[in-house]
Amino acid sequence: MPPPPFDRILPGTSLTYGHNPNEPYGKLFLIIPSSVSSEYGFFQTWAGFGSSLNWERLPVPAGVTPAQDASICYFYNPFRIPPEEKVLAVFDNRRDIWSYDVQTRSWTRERDIWGFSPVGKGVSLRFGGFGTVCGQPVTRFYLIKGEGSSEFMVYNRLYGNGNEIKAPFPYWEFLAPFGKGIITDTFFYPGADMALWPPVPFMALTPTYIYAMQGRSS
Predict the structure, then answer these.
(1) Tens digits of per-residue pLDDT, 38-87?
(2) Which of 26, 95, 140, 189 is 20 to 30 A (C-alpha) from 83?
(3) Would you say 101 and 45 are in contact if contact means Cβ atoms under 8 Å apart?
(4) What is the domain range of residue 166?
(5) Which superkingdom (predicted)?
(6) Concatenated DSSP letters for 41-87?
(7) Torsion angles phi and psi, residue 140, rounded to 5
């Protein structure tokens, strides 16, 4: 296993794994955000197996300034023609969400995140399967906004042509705020995270449970 081309992993680094079923191996994607290091902007992919394992530096989103935290998640959508293979990314202190196309090696800005506050430290983004909203096919992504917020949301990302949409589409939906009726302090903090169960393989429709960790500032 060859070493990565950098000598340290900084706070706020995010890692995700993905597998295109048409390829014999999976990939690891890594992003290192930092407002204090020239290493910000490294967006690495680790692909292959055996002696072919290798790191490759990929481009970064245009105009995204250095951040101190980020969250990325991979998804493969076999229902679209041609299939989609992408990585979604969010950065702290911002309201935009970006998708990286693995095949074209390019970034696209998606629908801005709704809500009262921008993304903060402890942000967590997870792929949540497939479904329909207003009769339109969507891929779902769950978002914990992070520090200073109790907002828990789902991003309904259209992958059809959208020609039948006659009214404003709910790209973002607010779910039940974190911890309501369970704990007194309902804000997220640095270190917040979530996991879906059962894990969503590329053909699954939706998870049954979502487990969240609040994180703490001390």
Answers:
(1) 444 444 444 444 445 667 778 778 877 767 788 999 999 988 888 999 99
(2) 95
(3) no
(4) 14-213
(5) Bacteria
(6) TEEEEEE-SGGG-EEEEE---TTPPP-S-EEEEEEEETTSSSPEEEE
(7) -105, 140
Number of domains in the chain: 1
Note whether residue 6 is domain-resident.
no
Distances (CA, A) of 203 to 62, 75, 76, 190: 32, 11, 9, 32
> Global pTM?
0.85
Instruction: Inform me whether the pLDDT recorded for 174 exceeds 70.
Output: yes
**35 DSSP 8-state letter:** S
Q: Are 26 and 74 in contact (CB under 8 A)?
A: no
* CA–CA separation, 98 and 109 (whole Å): 5
CA dihedral 191, 196, 199, 200 (to 10 degrees): -110
Q: Rounded CA gap, 208 and 65, in Å?
A: 36
Burial of 117 (0-12, 13-18, 19+ CB in 10 A): middle
Euclidean distance between CA atoms 140 and 138, whole angstroms: 6
Is residue 37, in this structure, part of any structural domain at all?
A: yes
